[in-house]
Amino acid sequence: MAQSEISVNRGAMRLVEEMIERPNSLGIKVTKTGNGATVIDAGIDAAGSFGAGRYVTEVCLGGLGRASMSMTDYGNGLILPSIFVETAYPAIATLGSQFAGWRIKDKEKKFVGMGSGPARALSMEPKELYEKISYEDKASEAVIVIETENAINNDIIEVISTKCVVQYASLYVIVAPTNSVVGSVQISGRVVETGIHKLSELGFDTKKIRYACGVAPIAPIHPNSAKAMGRTNDVILAAGRVYLTVGASEDDNLPELIARVPSSSSKDYGKPFHQIFKATGYDFYKIDPGLFAPAEITINDMSTGKSFHAGKVDVELLKKSFEY
Predict the structure, then answer these.
(1) pTM
(2) Theoretical Cys-Cys bridge with 93: which of 64, 153, 214, 313, CB 3.0 to 4.6 Å?
(3) Residues 6 or more apart whose Cβ sits within 8 Å of residue 255
(4) Domains, the chain, ordered by start
Protein backbone atom coordinates (compact mmCIF):
# COMPACT_ATOMS: atom_id res chain seq x y z
CA MET A 1 0.00 0.00 0.00
CA ALA A 2 1.35 3.42 -0.96
CA GLN A 3 1.97 5.77 1.95
CA SER A 4 -0.47 8.31 0.50
CA GLU A 5 -3.24 5.68 0.71
CA ILE A 6 -2.69 4.96 4.39
CA SER A 7 -5.12 6.47 6.90
CA VAL A 8 -4.36 5.69 10.52
CA ASN A 9 -7.75 7.06 11.55
CA ARG A 10 -9.70 4.86 9.15
CA GLY A 11 -7.56 1.90 10.19
CA ALA A 12 -8.27 2.54 13.85
CA MET A 13 -12.00 3.00 13.28
CA ARG A 14 -12.38 -0.66 12.35
CA LEU A 15 -11.03 -1.56 15.79
CA VAL A 16 -13.12 1.09 17.56
CA GLU A 17 -16.28 -0.29 15.96
CA GLU A 18 -15.41 -3.75 17.28
CA MET A 19 -14.86 -2.33 20.76
CA ILE A 20 -18.21 -0.55 20.71
CA GLU A 21 -19.89 -3.86 19.85
CA ARG A 22 -18.23 -5.63 22.83
CA PRO A 23 -18.53 -3.35 25.90
CA ASN A 24 -19.37 -6.09 28.41
CA SER A 25 -16.68 -8.59 27.44
CA LEU A 26 -14.05 -5.84 27.28
CA GLY A 27 -15.11 -4.13 30.51
CA ILE A 28 -15.60 -0.74 28.86
CA LYS A 29 -18.35 1.90 28.90
CA VAL A 30 -19.44 3.69 25.75
CA THR A 31 -21.22 7.05 26.05
CA LYS A 32 -21.99 10.16 24.01
CA THR A 33 -21.07 13.67 25.08
CA GLY A 34 -23.64 16.45 24.87
CA ASN A 35 -22.20 17.61 21.57
CA GLY A 36 -22.32 14.13 20.03
CA ALA A 37 -18.80 12.71 20.31
CA THR A 38 -18.26 9.09 21.38
CA VAL A 39 -16.29 8.42 24.56
CA ILE A 40 -14.99 4.95 25.41
CA ASP A 41 -14.12 4.70 29.10
CA ALA A 42 -11.52 1.96 29.45
CA GLY A 43 -10.43 2.57 33.03
CA ILE A 44 -11.84 5.65 34.78
CA ASP A 45 -15.29 4.42 35.83
CA ALA A 46 -15.06 1.21 33.79
CA ALA A 47 -12.99 -1.77 34.93
CA GLY A 48 -11.27 -2.37 31.61
CA SER A 49 -9.49 -5.64 30.80
CA PHE A 50 -6.35 -7.07 29.23
CA GLY A 51 -8.36 -7.58 26.05
CA ALA A 52 -9.35 -3.92 25.99
CA GLY A 53 -5.70 -3.02 26.52
CA ARG A 54 -4.75 -5.03 23.45
CA TYR A 55 -7.42 -3.25 21.40
CA VAL A 56 -6.27 0.17 22.59
CA THR A 57 -2.66 -0.69 21.72
CA GLU A 58 -3.70 -1.56 18.16
CA VAL A 59 -5.86 1.58 17.96
CA CYS A 60 -2.83 3.66 18.96
CA LEU A 61 -0.91 2.02 16.11
CA GLY A 62 -3.59 3.22 13.70
CA GLY A 63 -4.61 -0.31 12.75
CA LEU A 64 -1.16 -0.79 11.21
CA GLY A 65 0.16 -3.17 13.86
CA ARG A 66 -0.80 -6.19 15.90
CA ALA A 67 -0.52 -6.93 19.59
CA SER A 68 -0.63 -10.21 21.53
CA MET A 69 0.00 -11.18 25.12
CA SER A 70 1.62 -14.06 26.99
CA MET A 71 3.35 -14.86 30.27
CA THR A 72 7.12 -14.46 30.44
CA ASP A 73 9.64 -15.71 33.01
CA TYR A 74 12.20 -12.92 33.43
CA GLY A 75 14.26 -14.90 35.94
CA ASN A 76 14.95 -14.43 39.64
CA GLY A 77 11.37 -15.27 40.50
CA LEU A 78 9.85 -12.61 38.26
CA ILE A 79 7.04 -13.92 36.05
CA LEU A 80 4.92 -11.27 34.33
CA PRO A 81 2.37 -10.89 31.55
CA SER A 82 4.03 -9.37 28.49
CA ILE A 83 2.84 -7.69 25.33
CA PHE A 84 4.34 -8.32 21.88
CA VAL A 85 3.73 -5.79 19.11
CA GLU A 86 4.69 -5.81 15.44
CA THR A 87 4.17 -3.59 12.41
CA ALA A 88 5.14 -3.43 8.76
CA TYR A 89 4.65 0.36 8.76
CA PRO A 90 7.00 1.31 11.61
CA ALA A 91 7.42 5.08 11.17
CA ILE A 92 3.76 5.84 10.50
CA ALA A 93 2.33 3.41 13.07
CA THR A 94 4.59 4.56 15.90
CA LEU A 95 5.70 8.17 15.29
CA GLY A 96 2.72 9.07 13.10
CA SER A 97 0.11 7.62 15.44
CA GLN A 98 1.15 5.90 18.68
CA PHE A 99 3.60 8.48 20.03
CA ALA A 100 2.10 10.39 22.99
CA GLY A 101 2.98 13.77 21.56
CA TRP A 102 -0.13 15.86 22.22
CA ARG A 103 -0.64 17.55 25.59
CA ILE A 104 -4.42 17.89 25.67
CA LYS A 105 -5.64 21.02 27.45
CA ASP A 106 -9.15 22.39 27.95
CA LYS A 107 -10.32 25.86 26.94
CA GLU A 108 -8.83 27.33 30.10
CA LYS A 109 -5.46 25.80 29.16
CA LYS A 110 -5.58 23.38 32.07
CA PHE A 111 -3.82 20.07 31.36
CA VAL A 112 -6.21 17.16 30.80
CA GLY A 113 -3.96 14.30 29.69
CA MET A 114 -1.49 12.97 27.13
CA GLY A 115 -3.03 12.38 23.73
CA SER A 116 -1.85 9.69 21.35
CA GLY A 117 -3.20 7.69 18.47
CA PRO A 118 -4.47 8.50 14.98
CA ALA A 119 -6.06 11.90 15.70
CA ARG A 120 -2.55 13.31 16.10
CA ALA A 121 -2.09 12.86 12.35
CA LEU A 122 -4.98 15.27 11.79
CA SER A 123 -3.87 17.75 14.46
CA MET A 124 -0.23 17.46 13.29
CA GLU A 125 1.00 17.37 16.89
CA PRO A 126 3.96 17.82 16.80
CA LYS A 127 4.28 19.13 13.24
CA GLU A 128 8.04 18.60 12.93
CA LEU A 129 7.65 14.87 13.57
CA TYR A 130 5.21 14.52 10.67
CA GLU A 131 7.58 16.44 8.45
CA LYS A 132 10.33 13.95 9.34
CA ILE A 133 8.26 10.95 8.28
CA SER A 134 6.48 12.75 5.40
CA TYR A 135 3.00 11.74 6.49
CA GLU A 136 -0.42 13.31 6.89
CA ASP A 137 -3.93 11.91 7.18
CA LYS A 138 -7.04 13.29 5.47
CA ALA A 139 -9.70 11.21 7.25
CA SER A 140 -13.07 12.68 8.18
CA GLU A 141 -13.17 10.67 11.43
CA ALA A 142 -10.72 11.04 14.30
CA VAL A 143 -9.71 8.59 17.02
CA ILE A 144 -7.70 9.73 20.02
CA VAL A 145 -6.48 7.89 23.12
CA ILE A 146 -5.99 10.03 26.21
CA GLU A 147 -4.03 8.87 29.25
CA THR A 148 -5.99 10.70 31.94
CA GLU A 149 -7.97 10.47 35.15
CA ASN A 150 -10.27 13.29 34.00
CA ALA A 151 -13.76 12.86 32.60
CA ILE A 152 -14.19 14.12 29.04
CA ASN A 153 -16.63 17.01 28.67
CA ASN A 154 -18.00 19.13 25.82
CA ASP A 155 -15.23 21.73 26.12
CA ILE A 156 -12.48 19.13 25.68
CA ILE A 157 -14.32 17.63 22.71
CA GLU A 158 -14.52 21.08 21.12
CA VAL A 159 -10.78 21.64 21.56
CA ILE A 160 -9.90 18.28 19.96
CA SER A 161 -12.41 18.42 17.12
CA THR A 162 -11.39 21.98 16.22
CA LYS A 163 -7.71 21.04 16.09
CA CYS A 164 -8.45 17.92 14.04
CA VAL A 165 -11.04 19.68 11.84
CA VAL A 166 -13.70 16.99 12.27
CA GLN A 167 -17.35 17.07 13.29
CA TYR A 168 -18.16 16.26 16.92
CA ALA A 169 -20.08 13.16 15.84
CA SER A 170 -17.00 11.93 13.98
CA LEU A 171 -14.72 12.10 17.02
CA TYR A 172 -14.00 8.99 19.13
CA VAL A 173 -12.14 9.41 22.41
CA ILE A 174 -10.74 6.48 24.40
CA VAL A 175 -9.71 7.26 27.97
CA ALA A 176 -7.77 5.26 30.57
CA PRO A 177 -5.60 6.40 33.50
CA THR A 178 -2.06 5.15 34.01
CA ASN A 179 -3.08 3.19 37.12
CA SER A 180 -5.53 0.94 35.27
CA VAL A 181 -5.27 -2.39 33.47
CA VAL A 182 -5.73 -0.80 30.06
CA GLY A 183 -3.32 2.01 30.91
CA SER A 184 -0.64 -0.45 31.93
CA VAL A 185 -1.10 -2.65 28.85
CA GLN A 186 -1.15 0.11 26.26
CA ILE A 187 1.89 1.87 27.73
CA SER A 188 3.93 -1.35 27.58
CA GLY A 189 2.65 -1.69 24.01
CA ARG A 190 4.70 1.43 23.17
CA VAL A 191 7.98 -0.45 23.47
CA VAL A 192 8.73 -0.36 19.72
CA GLU A 193 7.74 3.30 19.51
CA THR A 194 10.29 4.23 22.20
CA GLY A 195 13.08 2.59 20.21
CA ILE A 196 12.06 4.20 16.95
CA HIS A 197 11.60 7.62 18.56
CA LYS A 198 15.06 7.37 20.16
CA LEU A 199 16.56 6.57 16.75
CA SER A 200 14.74 9.55 15.27
CA GLU A 201 16.11 11.83 17.98
CA LEU A 202 19.61 10.50 17.23
CA GLY A 203 19.22 11.54 13.60
CA PHE A 204 18.38 8.23 11.93
CA ASP A 205 15.89 8.40 9.05
CA THR A 206 13.07 6.24 10.41
CA LYS A 207 11.57 5.85 6.94
CA LYS A 208 14.40 3.35 6.38
CA ILE A 209 12.87 1.01 8.98
CA ARG A 210 10.96 -1.68 7.07
CA TYR A 211 9.70 -3.97 9.84
CA ALA A 212 9.58 -3.67 13.61
CA CYS A 213 8.60 -5.77 16.58
CA GLY A 214 9.16 -5.72 20.31
CA VAL A 215 8.12 -7.09 23.66
CA ALA A 216 7.80 -5.64 27.16
CA PRO A 217 6.42 -6.74 30.52
CA ILE A 218 3.06 -5.35 31.60
CA ALA A 219 3.54 -3.45 34.86
CA PRO A 220 1.68 -4.53 38.00
CA ILE A 221 -0.90 -1.84 38.78
CA HIS A 222 -0.25 0.56 41.65
CA PRO A 223 -3.15 2.68 42.99
CA ASN A 224 -0.94 5.76 43.25
CA SER A 225 -0.82 7.37 39.80
CA ALA A 226 2.76 8.67 40.19
CA LYS A 227 4.07 5.24 41.21
CA ALA A 228 2.03 3.61 38.46
CA MET A 229 3.68 5.96 35.97
CA GLY A 230 7.06 4.97 37.36
CA ARG A 231 6.36 1.28 36.90
CA THR A 232 5.00 1.68 33.37
CA ASN A 233 8.17 3.51 32.38
CA ASP A 234 10.41 0.98 34.12
CA VAL A 235 9.03 -2.06 32.29
CA ILE A 236 10.23 -0.58 29.01
CA LEU A 237 13.52 0.99 30.06
CA ALA A 238 14.53 -2.02 32.17
CA ALA A 239 13.09 -4.92 30.16
CA GLY A 240 11.72 -3.73 26.82
CA ARG A 241 13.27 -5.43 23.80
CA VAL A 242 13.02 -4.16 20.22
CA TYR A 243 13.97 -5.75 16.89
CA LEU A 244 14.11 -3.67 13.70
CA THR A 245 14.81 -4.56 10.09
CA VAL A 246 16.21 -1.60 8.18
CA GLY A 247 17.60 -0.65 4.80
CA ALA A 248 20.57 1.41 5.91
CA SER A 249 23.70 2.81 4.28
CA GLU A 250 27.31 3.14 5.42
CA ASP A 251 26.61 6.78 6.26
CA ASP A 252 24.18 5.67 8.97
CA ASN A 253 27.03 4.07 10.95
CA LEU A 254 24.77 1.57 12.70
CA PRO A 255 27.39 0.11 15.10
CA GLU A 256 27.98 3.52 16.68
CA LEU A 257 24.34 4.58 16.51
CA ILE A 258 22.85 1.50 18.16
CA ALA A 259 25.11 1.83 21.21
CA ARG A 260 23.36 5.13 21.98
CA VAL A 261 19.80 3.74 21.82
CA PRO A 262 19.25 1.67 25.01
CA SER A 263 18.01 3.41 28.15
CA SER A 264 21.21 2.39 29.94
CA SER A 265 23.11 4.91 27.77
CA SER A 266 21.34 7.71 29.70
CA LYS A 267 23.04 9.48 32.60
CA ASP A 268 19.82 9.08 34.61
CA TYR A 269 19.66 5.30 34.27
CA GLY A 270 20.02 3.02 37.31
CA LYS A 271 17.18 3.88 39.71
CA PRO A 272 13.44 3.16 39.50
CA PHE A 273 11.78 5.85 37.44
CA HIS A 274 9.60 7.09 40.30
CA GLN A 275 12.73 7.92 42.31
CA ILE A 276 14.23 9.80 39.36
CA PHE A 277 10.97 11.67 38.77
CA LYS A 278 10.58 12.57 42.44
CA ALA A 279 14.17 13.90 42.60
CA THR A 280 13.34 16.38 39.81
CA GLY A 281 10.35 17.75 41.71
CA TYR A 282 8.10 15.80 39.32
CA ASP A 283 9.32 17.83 36.35
CA PHE A 284 9.57 15.66 33.21
CA TYR A 285 11.70 18.25 31.47
CA LYS A 286 14.50 17.78 34.00
CA ILE A 287 14.85 14.10 33.10
CA ASP A 288 17.36 13.15 30.41
CA PRO A 289 15.22 12.45 27.27
CA GLY A 290 17.64 9.64 26.43
CA LEU A 291 16.22 7.59 29.31
CA PHE A 292 12.96 7.03 27.44
CA ALA A 293 14.09 4.03 25.41
CA PRO A 294 13.97 0.23 25.48
CA ALA A 295 16.46 -1.77 27.51
CA GLU A 296 17.65 -3.76 24.52
CA ILE A 297 17.65 -3.31 20.75
CA THR A 298 18.71 -5.37 17.74
CA ILE A 299 18.92 -3.93 14.25
CA ASN A 300 19.15 -6.14 11.18
CA ASP A 301 20.48 -4.28 8.14
CA MET A 302 18.80 -6.04 5.24
CA SER A 303 21.10 -4.28 2.73
CA THR A 304 24.18 -6.08 4.10
CA GLY A 305 22.70 -8.95 6.13
CA LYS A 306 24.54 -7.77 9.25
CA SER A 307 22.87 -7.41 12.65
CA PHE A 308 23.83 -5.15 15.54
CA HIS A 309 22.80 -5.40 19.19
CA ALA A 310 23.01 -3.20 22.27
CA GLY A 311 21.67 -3.17 25.82
CA LYS A 312 20.32 -5.84 28.14
CA VAL A 313 17.36 -6.62 30.39
CA ASP A 314 17.80 -5.45 34.00
CA VAL A 315 15.64 -7.71 36.17
CA GLU A 316 16.94 -6.28 39.44
CA LEU A 317 15.82 -2.78 38.44
CA LEU A 318 12.38 -4.16 37.66
CA LYS A 319 12.15 -5.83 41.05
CA LYS A 320 13.11 -2.58 42.78
CA SER A 321 10.43 -0.77 40.80
CA PHE A 322 7.79 -3.34 41.75
CA GLU A 323 8.98 -3.38 45.40
CA TYR A 324 9.50 -7.16 45.28
Answers:
(1) 0.96
(2) 64
(3) 308
(4) 3-322 (3.30.1030.10)
